[in-house]
Design goal:
homotetramer; about 375 residues; alpha+beta; Chorismate synthase, AroC fold; 8 helices; 18 strands; Chorismate_synth_AroC_sf (chains A, B, C, D); amino-acid biosynthesis (chains A, B, C, D); Chorismate_synth (chains A, B, C, D); lyase (chains A, B, C, D); FMN binding (chains A, B, C, D)
């Protein structure tokens, strides 16, 4: 089903080459202020054609609210919003119907939907489906500011370059770098690497790091609705995302307990840990330290290089070169998607807290 | 909430030092044969005290069905089952109530549940809560055999040792090795390493690899209920699991598209891919290749070494040495949990398939 | 939340005086033919301004699909559809903000949403919100025809008139009567009664009977997801609906078991019952006899007669006369809503059947 | 599925002639006091063998908690509880396997579960399955007392007798009458009528009225999760319940708007209505007046009188006389089930309130 969330529910609909893509966000109480500029800032950060190393597809990606708003305040009914698809060309896709592109969902939609598959532009498997994720997520991020939660995402590793300094606390900072790798020197190097890759007709993968600050301790549920399980479930909806690790992640596999355990101390009245190998989560529940995780994005599947494939009609070997306007480094545009979706996850976890505590998270001045 | 699954729902209950741990498995049709020997085989594989490198807590871990069965066939109502806790000692836990153990959920249950927290033996955050996961998962694995799906899990990396040969297709094979690392030489080395670690009063983490064979192509849903999202959501319910990657996983972050894309060819009538970097999943949906993923388990948090902590009553620095009977290498006992839970995930995905195809998965001879 | 259904999910959004009302229908497989004429026939039957005894608000109520369709076949992603609100006037509603109309949700939205309440035209409590119910329901009714299920609804009682002959099996029949009371004589009498009521500035309630034919036996689940519970849950979403009874309903309260029990006999190979006091449902599950139930609609709350109310600002007694264009007998327009919603309920029950049987309900020629 | 509720979830399991019947109640925060005496009082009120006009099956119906409790306080994990079936005799049921009892689910479980049906004593369609409903409901009723909500249920109509005075506000009052019809004269008359019915080998139906006081205004959601829809959905899980009406209910079908509308006035600071035809609910949401509804129970299906049936093996006409220990007037024992289940519904509605207001409902002294 196309719905996620527990007390805050997001349903998405539409497809790459249909008339619209949109979302329905249900669960917000009445009286929540919706800041259009803030939403648009995040939509712009995933918009195609941002700079010379992203796809040149032209989409304005303006959000249009179709329900749930009265003069920029929620009315307690579902927020509905749509985006008009503007710049799509269906004729590119005749060939790929029968010659599935390696790395894409062409082959699996053939298995699942048969002759009724919506294959143009990847149909509803397209990266454009992340538009409503960013919209809903940025609404959540804006609400989380009421209790001082902030979320940072940036590219930590790509093209053989790895960032060292991870002390970033400004949610906007990484967007001042063309590649979203927030280091002047590495940004230049990665930028040039991507230009090379474009020339080669190839693409690159990457790793995105996310840190969320000031989440109250005690958020998340034991077992199935843990912070990790909730975030992972949502993150894997992002096309091309193939792994997630929290805190020290896969390094924990070669560590000992005395290295891995984060020991406690009091910093004033607050309990902190000397290290944060757990990524701010113990037993699936936040411990008050920054929430940290990384996700890996596979390289964009669409490449101009010739690749082996099969012809689904003739059952013969075939070849394909994916032409059209594609991102050589889709990880760059996934950064705001991961960041916003983290906001959605955290707001839903707070709203769904089984301890039924109350924060002034909706800033309605009444403790609710 | 303590429930997972879509059309096949598992609810778990109980705690480490309460009278029982149990589960309710709802959604199976009537007439499914329940094989007690098969379930017990899997329960035995996660049982404490298997050998000298696991905890010496004594639990028979016999499953008792309390509902849903008529003479070893399901009756269409929820399967209820319980395990009696036998060998628990509450007095160990007086100290940890006020001096949280690093790496454990002691501190987060303090935040979430306050004075009503169930802290003895980790309460309902205990690894014993994986018992109903193994029970439900082994029931699912048994059903999946009706359409020839088999699932293999083993330890791929731990203590600095990494297994190379990954061509394992027998679900029982890894259990012929004391460490579940299915290589005679590495098994010895890891075994000795663990003996050392026990002497040091420390613990080890590890990485578990899982491969599922013969899943029909077309299983899994686009976006939120993808194969990856569904499996990840469930896996993070396993205490101590901190990361998951599908196919080539985090390596994809430094690969190019031409390296990462799995190209297609016909093997007879079947479409296969030359490589399997996607782990058998494209667009969140199975493509007919083996489903492959790895998870990382952090080192057991309970160690005898002295660690820094805080006293929650005095607000002063404190120290703790975790005594009692603990697994130095809990990853070993997590292997059957991961394996069985994969079975649960796959059966639920098949039962929930939105294309509403029918397989003879329940083997009732009527195509249902 | 604004979502109903189990495997077939409907989310509705919008409000009476916002730009749109719409719905998202998720769960249909790919390849289901969507018949626009059929949907429009049902939408027309609940449209305002049908005849002189309905409201004169002018709405074309044309459905616009915004997602999920490829050339009139579903693509397996959510069907999104919207209706543009055309003929709304906000100025009527200044007075009622502070002087709640008796019988309406004005007062309860004041309690629940406070100053952010969407009160114009009843906001999202408006009867216009039944538009997406009819749309989704008519899609379901069309699918149910593939296995010969048909559903009939008509007015059984209103204005002191009660229909006797209940042998109606044509889903269109009641719409050949102006009042939806399918008896030429009673139709005339009720019609004249309504004209009187209009003159008086008053309104009428009524009872709607529904019969569904050819539902396979075995549909519905024990306990919470019974046929009765599922249908009742959905029906009470219809504004103004205050009661539901199945089979002999409230008459069962004064019957004896020997009168009430429906005894069995074989009619050829088919087991039938001599009477149908159970309304075709035993233990929450269909028994192969026609499914029968009645619902009661309260009289339209909006009346021109002067009524006592309170002023929410001054906390003083107040009066109100509800002017504007209102249905004197809203039950008439509720008939297709009840009928279509029954279709939605039955299709969802069939799709969610725990016995996992398969019917050729989607008519895709492959037994699925 | 065997689960109901939104933020407060109840899963039931077991069957009449299996070893146990039980429930899992998930969603309560930690620190809620569980009052065993209070629960047992309600269990006793539905227990068989209460007096000479109920079945003589002997069941102690003692609740045993198997999880979620620490010294009578919830620990935040699911409350699990079981009841041991003590007095069941399987041999009675050989005949009914092939000769379905009119009015029972014997025939529908044959359709749904085929040869694997659990038919002894009605299996999981038995009225014994209401035991966990009473347990969970009485826990909810006890919690609701923290904000002064009280719930009353009694028999309003049965055997041709109808109660007039409805001013009952004491939740225990109706249990001082043998028939639960709270009028000394009618209680006698109905009691004698039931004795006659027993002699005849027949049974009676009845109507149960419920009133809930002091529910805060603003509870319940628009559309699908309305107060009416939520309560109706739960009530239809009670075996034999065939109709529900709120406020004036089916009488609204023959009323005019000026009669039906409940007009408003201020009683001090509180807005009240002159009448309560809406049953305390407008737009699906509570308006602060008492919540009122009635349900009808069909006569007990098991009667000693000879009835026509069919033989499922021979496909021939057959006859049946239901011997064994049956309630002639099951409505009597349904009273506490309806009452407790109302408590469950109201608590879930309050916990799920989309406006996210907070009441001190769990009485933990911190506004939560």
């Amino acid at each position: 089903m196309f719905t996620a969330g527990n007390r805050l529910k997001l349903t998405i609909f539409g497809s790459s080459h249909g008339p619209y893509i949109g979302g329905i966000l249900d669960g917000l109480p009445a009286g929540v202020n919706i800041d259009m500029d803030y939403i648009n800032k995040w939509l712009d950060r995933r918009r195609p054609g941002i700079n010379s190393i992203t796809t040149q597809r032209k989409e304005s990606d303006r959000i249009e609210f179709i329900s749930g708003l009265k003069e920029f305040y929620t009315d307690g009914s579902p927020l509905g919003f749509i985006f008009r698809n503007e710049d799509y060309i269906n004729k590119h896709y005749d060939y790929i119907r029968d010659n599935p592109r390696p790395g894409h969902a062409d082959i699996t939609m053939y298995y699942k939907y048969g002759e009724y598959r919506n294959y143009e532009g990847g149909g509803f498997f397209s990266g454009r489906m992340t538009l409503p994720l960013v919209a809903a997520g940025s609404i959540a991020m804006h609400i989380l500011k009421n209790i001082n939660i902030s979320i940072v995402s940036y590219i930590k590793s790509a093209g053989g370059f790895n960032i060292q300094n991870e002390n970033i606390s400004d949610e906007d900072y990484s967007y001042s770098f063309r590649t979203r790798m927030p280091d002047p020197d590495l940004d230049d190097k990665l930028y040039n690497k991507i230009l090379e890759i474009i020339k080669d007709g190839d693409s690159l993968g990457g790793i995105i790091k996310t840190i969320a600050y000031n989440i109250p301790p005690g958020i998340g549920e034991p077992f199935f609705d843990s912070v990790e399980g909730t975030i992972a479930h949502l993150m894997f909806s992002i096309p091309g995302l193939k792994g997630i690790e929290f805190g020290a992640g896969f390094k924990l596999g070669s560590m000992s307990g005395s290295q891995a355990n984060d020991t406690f101390y009091y910093d004033g009245d607050k309990i902190k840990t000397r290290t944060n190998n757990s990524g701010g989560i113990l037993g699936g529940i936040t411990n008050g330290m920054p929430l940290e995780f990384s996700v890996v994005m596979k390289p964009t599947s669409s490449i101009r290089k010739k690749q082996e494939t099969v012809n689904l009609k003739t059952h013969q070997p075939s070849e394909i070169q994916v032409i059209g306007r594609h991102d050589p480094f889709i990880t760059l545009r996934a950064v705001p998607v991961v960041q916003a979706l983290t906001g959605f996850a955290i707001l839903d976890l707070i709203m769904s807290d089984s301890s039924q505590k109350k924060w002034d998270i909706f800033n309605r001045g009444d403790g609710n």
